[in-house]
Design goal:
Layout lengths: L10 H6 L6 E6 L9 E7 L6 H7 L3 E3 L2 E6 L3 H12 L2
């Protein structure tokens, strides 16, 4: 907590590289007024999992294996919806 935004660069790629991980999500809370409270980056390690579809459900976008979105939902709500989207 409290790390400056540039320190989060590249973390998502380390998370995706964890053995056995099929999806990685990084939820950040950047200190910006007038924007969503949380920014979420998604990465997929398998072709069968389209993270852009999950991001689009939140109003975001991206590519099949790299996507993102912004939201004011709680971390628990974000996590539940990502898990539900990945299970499809």
């Amino acid at each position: 907590m409290g790390a400056a935004e540039p320190y989060s660069e590249g973390i998502i790629d380390y998370l995706r590289a964890v053995e056995g991980a099929e999806i990685a999500a990084l939820i950040r809370e950047p200190p910006r007024e007038g924007t969503p409270a949380r920014k979420v980056s998604l990465r997929s390690s398998v072709d069968e999992l389209d993270v852009s579809a999950i991001a689009r459900a939140f109003g975001g976008g991206g590519h099949r294996q790299a996507a993102g979105f912004g939201t004011d939902l709680s971390i628990d709500e974000i996590t539940a919806r990502i898990v539900a989207g990945a299970a499809r």
